Amino acid sequence: MEHNINLESEISTHPYEVRLSRPTEDTLLVQLSGNWTLGKGLPSSGEVEQALETGQRVQRVIFDTQGVTDWDTSLLPFLKKIMELCDHHAIQVEEDGLPQGVRRLLQLAMAVPAKDTGGVSKPAGFLARIGNATIGIAEPGAEMLSFIGDTFLVFLKLLRGRARFRRSDLTLLIYECGAQALPIVTLISFLIGVILAFVGAVQLKQFGAEIYVANLVGIAMTREMGPMMTAIVLAGRSGAAFAAQLGTMTVNEEVDAFKTMGFEPMEFLVLPRLLALTLMMPPLALYADFLGILGGAVVAKGLDVSFMQYFEQTRQALSPKHFALGLIKSAIYGVLVAIAGCLRGIKSGRSASAVGSAVTSAVVTGIVFIIVASAITTVIYEVIGV
Amino acid sequence: MANTSTHINVHNLDMAYGSFVVQRDLNFEIKRGEVFIIMGDSGCGKSTLLRHMIGLNTPARGEILYDGENFWEALPRAREAMMRRFGVLYQSGALWSSMTLAENVALPIEAYTDLSPDEIREVVSLKLALVGLAGFEEFYPSEISGGMQKRAGLARAMALDPEILFFDEPSAGLDPISSRRLDDLILELRDSLGSTVVVVTHELASIFAIGDNSIFLDAEVRTMVASGNPKQLLADPPTPKIREFLSRGEL
Ligand SMILES: Nc1ncnc2c1ncn2[C@@H]1O[C@H](COP(=O)(O)OP(=O)(O)OP(=O)(O)O)[C@@H](O)[C@H]1O
Ligand SMILES: [Mg+2]
After folding, report:
1. Is the pLDDT of residue A166 over 70?
2. Which-ligand-closest: CA of A251?
3. CB-based burial of residue A310 (10 Å sphere; 0-12 exposed, 13-18 middle, 19+ buried)?
4. pLDDT band at A9, cuts 50/70/90?
5. Among A118, A353, B41, B203, fewest CB within 10 Å belongs to which?
6. Statement: residue A274 has pLDDT above 80
7. Which chain B residues are within 8 Å of A166, Cβ to Cβ?
8. Mean pLDDT of all residues belonging to chain B
9. Which residues contact A252 (CB under 8 A, 6 or more apart)?
10. Is residue B134 in a domain?
């Protein structure tokens, strides 16, 4: 008796073919033919599974691969699935019909059973994922607070003259954060001045008060935009660089090497970066203030306000107080950008992609810090009336 | 080997990453001046054990004693003092990439001794010469080969004449001759400085050439399955797996 269950792949574009039949009642013959190569897609073993689990009980599975013209890796997962299934149902498999190479590769693949590593679990359900995400929110917050605490402690150590780091590192970092940022800060702050002046001029012109563009640009640059734009530029330059440097050092075990030699990474790596950025941010912001005002002057010139008039107006509008308030902000931004960069770098995972996300996250965290700090300080200035 | 008192004692140590237990119930002791080999199949937790011993990972359970002093229960200051007696050569070399080789070796010397810059320079040249890197003082780690980085890492590990030297796969990536020279150097260091040496390695030639004592960690049962002198382990293997390991799988 031969029931011929013809389960030929329905999609005829596949160059491979699986034909199942029962030469005897309890034997399943799996007949393979055609071209089994990776480029043609991975065949599914579903049909065989079905044939094994339905109908008359199968005791033995045999193969016939004479019609196979070409095969590579794509054949193996198919066969491995079948073997595992047979193993599970205690069905005997006869591999004689398979090509030599296939048999050897299968043996290799089945030689070491998958290890229970405890870590890989089934993807959690929807509710579980929401729960985990909620619990997960607290973690970065706690991490950040403890990092800020550590930063504070090393800062105290610095004040007591007990902090240990290489002075040459600090000099180099100051050069990288400060001098090397000059070109980009020049460009950005000049253009910000131009933009502010344009926006203001359009409005003020309606009242014939073009000269007040000087007040607008001067106050906006010194109190807010100069420090903020400088900080954002440095978050993208230095904050990202810090995260990348510290992240790579973590990957290369360099941070471990510091620890085992008794050098505290907070002291040795984070402190010089924090100092360099906090020291360089205010001078750069001051420089940005002046370039923004210059940008404003150029626009005003187009509105028939001479440079002399413009600068005289600016001088009257600004007092040292405005500069000082801006510089206080910029020092705060410096600390925050450095903390964001170093925190993400030190906590980076040990792979290239982890360093990549550390850098992204350093820039995002840095910019969020800047905007939030800006809002808070502005409100405080407002409340104390300066 | 001046005396043979116990130098390091590992007691009931369990190691885990989160809930994934790497090894459990490790018990062994290392004598002063001994070359101690940690061996086992890939992924069984040798590097992890080393990280526990040098203070980078905290044990899930159990203790590690140095000269009878509990490492993980010591106050931070005392622990730091203990760590200063270690020299570590990492699997990847782990040289500080922003510093030249000379600066790498000099940093610990500057930090922990009162030598003058000239004296430091001399010591550094000597240490680099010991590992065959004389003349490479001003090179950066990225400008030398992987094997040279390993050797420079060794020079840095030896900078302060440590009491205990830890090596993670020192001869991986070295040619047979350099690897042999490294073995000789390890023995030389042990004999001249009296250092205790803890080595993670699969290199059979090294295991038999330098090992005084050893433990074998098993990835399947997740604990140590044997300990003793490697030559004796080969002569009288306690399990087939160890025989296979020590005879290079040639059964
Ligand atoms: N940071 C980590 N987080 C989670 N699991 C880890 C981590 N590092 C290592 N493991 C796991 O711990 C086990 C032991 O790793 P370890 O690096 O100690 O092995 P090893 O014996 O040094 O191997 P090799 O000889 O290949 O260097 C491995 O199974 C690995 O998957
Ligand atoms: Mg390892």
Report:
1. yes
2. 1
3. buried
4. very low
5. A353
6. yes
7. 107
8. 88
9. B92, B94, B97
10. no
Local structure of residue A56 (DSSP, 8 states): S
Is A253 in Cβ contact with B91 (below 8 Å)?
yes
Optimal mutation site among A116, A117, A253, interface B, most CBs of chain B within 10 A:
A253
Atom of ligand 1 nearest to the CA of A115: 29
* Parallel/antiparallel/unpaired status of strands B213-218 and B164-168: unpaired
Has residue B225 been placed in a domain? yes
Domains and CATH numbers, chain A: 16-111 (3.30.750.24), 155-384 (no CATH)
Q: Which range of residues forms the domain containing residue B27?
A: 1-85+197-251
Atom of ligand 1 nearest to the CA of B217: 21
Query: Which residues of chain B from 181 to 240 reach within 8 Å of chain A, CB to CB?
Result: 219
Backbone angles phi, psi at A206, to 5 degrees: -60, -25
Between CA A29 and CA B202 the distance in angstroms is 47
Measure in Å the smallest separation between the Cα of A238 and chain B Cα atoms: 16
- Using one digit for the tens of pLDDT, what is the confidence trace for B150-200? 889 989 998 888 899 999 988 877 788 888 888 888 888 888 888 899 999
Q: Is residue B76 part of a domain?
A: yes
Q: Is the CB of B44 under 6 A from ligand 1?
A: yes
Number of folded domains that form chain B: 1
Q: With beta carbons less than 8 A apart as the criterion, state whether A188 and A227 touch.
A: no
Alpha carbon separation from A238 to A33, A215, A216, A230, A280 (Å, rounded) = 61, 32, 30, 11, 11
Which of A119, A254, A262 minimises the CB distance to B97?
A254
- Decide if B142 is inside a domain: no
- β-partners of residue B227 are B215
Q: Are A258 and B96 a contacting pair at CB < 8 A?
A: yes
pLDDT digits (tens, 9 = 90+) for A323-381: 999 999 999 999 999 999 999 999 998 888 999 999 999 999 999 999 999 999 999 99
**Global ipTM:** 0.82
Cβ proximity of A262 and B80 under 8 Å: yes
Looking at residue A37, its pLDDT comes to 78
- Residue pair B140/B133 in contact by the 8 Å Cβ criterion: no
* Whether the Cβ atoms of residue B197 and residue B34 lie closer than 8 Å to each other: yes
Q: Of the given ranges (A107-116, A218-227, A328-337, B22-31), which has the lowest mean pLDDT? A: A107-116
DSSP-based three-state secondary structure for A205:
helix
Whichever domain contains B69, its CATH number is 3.40.50.300
pLDDT of residue B1: 43
